[in-house]
Amino acid sequence: MHRQGIAAIILSAGGVIAAPAPQASAPAAEIKCPIVFDGRVPVGTEKTFFDTYATNTIFNPDYVKGNDLKWSQILQYPSVESSRFDGADYQAIEVTLSDKSIFQQQNGFRRAGLQFLRDSSDGPGTTGVKTLHFSVKQDPTRPLNLTHEYLNVWHEAADYSSNQIQFQYGQIIGKSAADKNNFKILDRNGRSLYSVAADPSSWQNFAIKLDYTKNQVQIYYSIGQAALKSVAGPTSASLTGGGQFQIGMLKKPTGTSDVVNSGYQEKNLNEGQIYGGLFLEDSANNCVSL
Ligand SMILES: *[C@@H]1O[C@H](CO)[C@@H](O)[C@H](O)[C@H]1NC(C)=O
User: Fold this and answer.
1) Among 27, 68, 151, 234, which residue has the least CB neighbours within 10 Å?
2) So where are the chain's domains?
3) Each residue of 182-205: pLDDT tens digit?
4) Whose CA is nearest to atom 11 of ligand 1?
5) Nearest residue (CA) to ligand 1, atom 6
6) For residue range 61-89, what is the model confidence (pLDDT) as tens digits?
7) Where are the transmembrane segments (predicted)?
8) 3-state helix/strand/coil string of the chain
């Protein structure tokens, strides 16, 4: 913290905050609540770090990804300004999809989803009051195809029957295409909790407060380096059933009622979603880092 403070003063004095060089930018916003799971990637982390339990202390190296891919092949380090909670010490990661992004026998999906290493179906990510923070940014060289439905960030129940909370992009199957360019936060029944247009160039910062004791959800949002503000809730939503977080991309096919196993996916896929500032914090006593 002290070192960041000095860096901020030097940057201010130099007047370069307005036009930051890639990865060297504004100081990180303070995380003021205890971190439960830290998904921030320190600057300088080798990509092979993500491939084995021997090195990967952040995410599960084995899940959820194409059978023949390693995370070092899936993740890219985009050259972008740091997101609000990454600052100078942590770097953005880009989760990519290719034709090889087939998990187990799920031929309908293309998917690559990060799981926090210590997250478990009945662990601390499923109790009390917790807030999931993440920032997203678009890569113009690896655009998503918004004719498809994407799950990007979600909490999947322990019995895999539903996702208590789902952050989605693209056209939701069976719904109107009118909001396909919006990020949509839905409850486990598909009810919209919040929706905002995806920005083609800026970081967009989200925090989803999950109150497992009251079955309530509150959404916080900001753009760029601005402080988060509450934009929805707290509203009732069933959060029962345990489970795990997943962060990345799950692209559903078109033209099928059996999305897991069949349907259409175009070939030569090269899509990416950039993430930064990923962590789960303890929001006991209503603590939320803004
Ligand atoms: C986007 O997806 C639709 C539906 O699968 C497909 O018809 C179209 O070719 C895709 N577009 C691109 C640019 O891949």
Assistant:
1) 68
2) 2-286
3) 999 999 999 999 999 999 999 999
4) 145
5) 266
6) 999 999 999 999 999 999 999 999 999 99
7) none
8) CHHHHHHHHHHHHHCCCCCCECCECCCCCCCCCCEEEECCEECCCCHHHHHCCCCCCCECCCCCCCCCCCHHHHEECCCCCCCCCCCCCEECEEEEECCCCCCCCCCCCEEEEECECCCCCCCHHHCCEEEEEEEEEECCCCCCCCCCEEEEEEEECCCCCCEEEEEEEECCCCCCCCCCCEEEEEECCCCEEEEEECCCCCCEEEEEEEECCCCEEEEEEEECCCCCEEEEEEEECCCCCCCEEEEEEEECCECCCCCCCCCECCCCCCEEEEEEEEEEEECHHHCCCC
Please state the atom number of ligand 1 nearest to the C-alpha of residue 253. 5
Taking the domain 2-286, which CATH number applies?
Answer: 2.60.120.1160
Lining ligand 1 with CB less than 6 A are 145, 147-148, 254, 264, 266
